[in-house]
Input
Amino acid sequence: MKTQSSFQHRQGIELVVAVLEEPIARSLLALFLALAVVFLVMPVLGANPLGAYSSLFAGAFGSKQAIGETSLAMTPLLISSLGFALAYKCGLFNIGLEGQIQVGAVAAAFVGYSIHGLPSAVHLPLALAASLAAGAIWGLGPAILKARFGIHEVISTIMMNYIAFKLSAYMVSVQGPMKDRLDLMPASPVIESSAKLARIMGGTRLTWGIAIALVAAFLVWFLLSKTRLGYKLRVVGQNHFAAEVGGIRASHYYVIAMMLSAGLGGLAGGVETLGVHYRLLASFSPGYGFDAIAVSLLGGLHPLYIIVSSFIFGALRSGAILMQAKEGMSKDIVQVISTVIIFVMSMADPLGRLIKRRIGLKTNA
Amino acid sequence: MLEHLVNLSIISSSLRIATPILLASLAGTISERSGVINIGIEGVMLLSAFAAAFGSFFLGAWPGVLVGVMVGGALGLVHAFMSITVRSDQVVNATAVNILAIGLPNIIISRVWKGYYSSTPIVPVVRNLRLELLDRLPVVGKVFGDLNPIVYVAFLLVPAMHVLLFKTRVGLRIRAVGELPIAADTLGVNVPKLRYLSVIASGMLAGLGGAYLSICYQSQFSMGMTEGRGFIGLAAMIFGRWTPVGAMAASILFGLADAFQANAQSAGLPIPAEIMLTLPYVLTLLALIKVAGKRVLGPAAAGQPYVKN
Amino acid sequence: MRGIVKRFPGVLANDDVDLEVTSGEVHCLLGENGAGKTTLMNVLYGLYSRDRGEICVDGSPVEFKGPSDAIRHGIGMVHQHFMLVPVFSVVDNIVLGSEPTRGGFIDRDRARREILALSREYNLPVDLDAQVRDISVGMQQRAEILKLLYRGARIMILDEPTAVLTPKEVDELFKIICALKSSGCTIVFITHKLREVMEFSDRVSVLRRGRRVATLETANTDAAELVKMMVGREVVAHVEKSDRVPGRVVARVDEVTAKNQRQLPALRGLSFQVSEGEIVGIAGVEGNGQNELAEILTGHRKPTSGKVTLQGRDMTGRSPKEFLRAGVAYIPADRLRDGLIAEFALFENTTLGYQDSLPFAKGVRLDQGEERLFCEQIVKEFEIKATSTSVPSGLLSGGNQQKLIIGRELRRDPRLLVAVQPTRGLDVGAIEYVHSQLIRAREEGKAVILISLELNEILSLSDRILVMYEGRIAGEFTSAEASREELGLCMAGGRASQ
Output
């Protein structure tokens, strides 16, 4: 006997399920929940949530300079998230982006400061290409380990991360080959101006890197949805058994996907180095490689939606700096937001199915 | 220089360094044996290390250890819920925990201790055990005379887990659930319950490893102090073929490498410090390659959620 | 069991089914694939929860929340796919869940003693310490039965127990069932094979499309009547096939040896050939190398020695892609795992294998318009029931999924078609359709290799029949010569009287 209230109850549940299943709604839900959780937790940590969020907002959008900073933070996030999404579509979990970003930076800085006398039109693309190649090479190892030996890429890419951090630290350490002799900081020499990414928006630090990132987003989208290679990558990612039967050799495409993904990671490091720091610093990435995971998931692993989610995260990052300064709320809170987003996005599908099962609806799987 | 590199103290250093790796690999072993992949051990260790330091600051060393273990168990429970009941992607969930572990401690530290950001102040530690009798023995004394009690606990857990997994009912059922859960289910074995227990135990072991790091091995928590040992532990688990004894052997090997690297720095080897620091990670990769060449597979059902009708 | 209703997403598996089993009898549950027999028994065993209805054991109603409840009431079930942990020993598998203990540890000695006693009493020889993955299928089944006896089961449910046995092993099983019956056990026997019903059972209940059609005393009925009840109409025993003289040799396998997944020998010097316009049926009990043979013929496995030739070209050890290019189409046994990508739309599934050829491949791009067109053609020609080409293929019924795969493969206009278990899990209508497509391929001059575990299928479709045993061809027959008895003998390793 269905009473009125239980009918409404059921309608409410069906609404929840619908939200969980619809991609955009689900992302918005994840974001909302993450921000809400942090909002509720802030008083415990001694911060004023309203004040914190308002300075977050101000720091992200409050002025032309703020928007510039947001877009600047968005740039490496967008590129590395594209890398994560691409690998994920092929069934690979590239958690090594952080290390790939680092080696990309090393390569870009090296090409940037060690070659003199080149015109900008040559030097800059060369440095960017170097960062892309360095990232791709860094991903090659784990790719081969997976393809030849079936070793799960999570452990191998994480090991590569640590190796990348230590090697890069060595490069700019006191005895390191890339250390700037004239400076006390552990950093490389500043790159030539012919290798610097030019500013794109007066009055801000925003560079042409954002254009590179947007072009990359479009290219990745095109690759995945319109090309033969993209089809093969997706088939391998969805069902590598059927892929083999269709003449698509999975191991082959794991390598391709990983190198493309890692290359994008390297590119992110290169763009950041050539546009923001202009030199190699020991550990300059505030966890872009890990944020990429949340950004990717939030964007539903769709290259074009990732543009939006990387913008949101860029806003969080740049806003958090002001938030920390004014409210004393540590900017690491962004990590907590990341975590909640990842949890919600990863739970959405299975949770939807779980609820459906409980209330007896049809499911796909 | 050679005597700096190779001496008895390197063995005791190895045991000390191997302990967190061993605990991580035991954590991974019991979880995967029941069929649940847990790559979040690194994050759990880190968060537990922080919890232990936190607990130790306010309550003392041994209560701190307890706090660390409990926090580890709680995180294990979360992972168990997500992986077993909700059935979302186990790797993604674990990654979320790892990311949380990067940011959360700093937030709490800067709130609780004014002026501190990425590490806690010095906290009370669990003191090493000076065994009088052993101390007098020439060789054994140098190696075992001055070890932390948690080291003993960790190594004693090896035979304990071995007996549990291979000689008891619970162990047989855990292994069955990780190989062919439907077979166990048809015989009336409660698959989810066993998996929950294993994953919580896994969390507690990782918690112990984290507690060891912050209040036994060091005397404070600092950001990122696990340095990948959670993952090296997983590699040790694979290298040790998902057995406790194998995990111990592999962990000692990794510990030896790490100790060697530390010794080499003070011994004045001409290799730069940072390069030496990559040794454990490179070794891990090599170990994985060696194992994979033989096409060894873990528990057959690892990573696959069990769906009942 | 009274009024049992069990629903799965999209399927009403049991529609108000009643079943009455009397003590000490051998009761057969007969029905074709998908009739709901296994589901019903899973409900009885407590593995599935029922939506409606009630169950009574020995007159009193029971509620089984799980198999352990059923076990406690003396009910045991041997499933079609054995529930044995491959890496565990036989002992460990038998005692799992009911392990005897001593001082907190498993008392394996006591377990051994008890099991050996049972093994001797019922004549079920097993090697207790062997790992399950190393023992024969017959021994595995005996271990499964011992599992039930160890727990004191008086009501035993056997689900398609003869699917994996040779005819000789089937006879042995019958003897075991007789022994169990005379010791007071009640046996419920699920099958779709009429012969077994007539030979083994006291009574038979026929299920069709989730409903119980009738329950009869076996002595009072015959195969024809049962078939009619099982299927609902007259069944055509033989497919219409024209007399054809085979053309040129399309594929040849010469002294091929190969290893399986576990690096054990699977093919030990296999040689045969197949020509245009002929269907060669490969019969044999599961596990005698058929899967590996299919993989050799499609490029998914490299032979360790020997040659594979396709229209004169040496294709030994080449990649699946090259086999596809050379005109080999593959209908794999596991359609959901190997044949389709369940989450992808239909039109993305039909492109599989064609992604690098025209008209789809235009430079780096994949022409989606062409993809959809191709898919629509297949849907129309092969009468696939789908609302649009954008539907995920996982939503299609088994029969329609198989039609999609067959359509995709036949459109390749292949020289050789390798079909493995093409009608597994399909209802009679779909089976007839698949058979007609295989005949059509033959009519069009293609070479067809049909690998199947269903002897009837092999007998009715093949021009020539090869029997595989332990990785070799144990016998070769023309369709005129072949009889069930001779084939059965070959399948069990006996020599064929040629």
About this structure: Chain A touches chain C through 23 residues (CB under 8 Å). Chain A has two domains: 1-47+331-365, 48-328. Chain A has 14 helices and no strands. Residues 120-149 of chain A form the longest helix (30 residues).
